[in-house]
């Protein structure tokens, strides 16, 4: 069954739209993605309180299929209660280009590499894959450039 997913970045002034999206999701069972929640800590505290209250007093208003996905950078004031009631997934940025490439190459399986090698455009595909992997590590390159000062962004 297809799920409807609504997403909203938690920039300045997005709280009313996020509240509306969350309310709708809780009622009909859709999924909601709140992005950059470290920028909307007040809204996160409000979300924590709302979920606790609805679970305790109005469970019929909290649809069984409702899911709220939250993306955030680490922040010391992020509501601990919200973290405790959540399933957490982390993605740590590797330190440096070598670590980034090693991590990305580790994702590749031999079956995938064999599938690329067995095609008529094998050389082109290998080059495209290498370029994609290096581009994937580009944020690491930019971070290293800022840290060591050898480029201006």
Automatic annotation (TrEMBL):
Gene3D superfamilies: P-loop containing nucleotide triphosphate hydrolases (3.40.50.300)
GO terms classed as biological process: microtubule-based movement
Domain Dynein heavy chain region D6 P-loop: 2-90
Organism of origin: Chrysochromulina tobinii
Protein name according to UniProt: Flagellar outer dynein arm heavy chain gamma
Phosphoprotein is among the record's keywords: no
One Gene Ontology CC term in the entry: dynein complex
Single GO term (MF): dynein intermediate chain binding
InterPro entries for the chain: DHC, Dynein_heavy_D6_P-loop, P-loop_NTPase
Presence of the UniProt keyword Repeat in the record: no
Protein keywords: Cell projection, Cilium, Flagellum
């Amino acid at each position: 069954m297809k799920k409807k997913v609504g997403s909203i970045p938690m920039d300045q002034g997005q709280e009313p739209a996020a509240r509306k999206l969350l309310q709708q999701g809780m009622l009909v069972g859709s999924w909601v993605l709140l992005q950059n929640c470290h920028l909307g800590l007040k809204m996160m505290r409000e979300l924590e309180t709302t979920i606790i209250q609805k679970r305790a007093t109005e469970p019929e208003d909290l649809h069984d299929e409702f899911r709220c996905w939250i993306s955030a950078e680490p922040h010391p004031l992020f509501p601990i209660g919200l973290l405790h009631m959540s399933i957490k997934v982390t993605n740590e940025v590797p330190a440096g280009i070598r670590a980034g490439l090693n991590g990305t190459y580790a994702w590749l399986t031999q079956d995938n590499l064999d599938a690329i090698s067995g095609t008529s455009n094998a050389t082109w595909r290998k080059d495209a894959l290498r370029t994609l992997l290096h581009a994937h590590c580009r944020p690491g390159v930019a971070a290293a450039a800022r840290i060591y000062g050898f480029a201006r962004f």
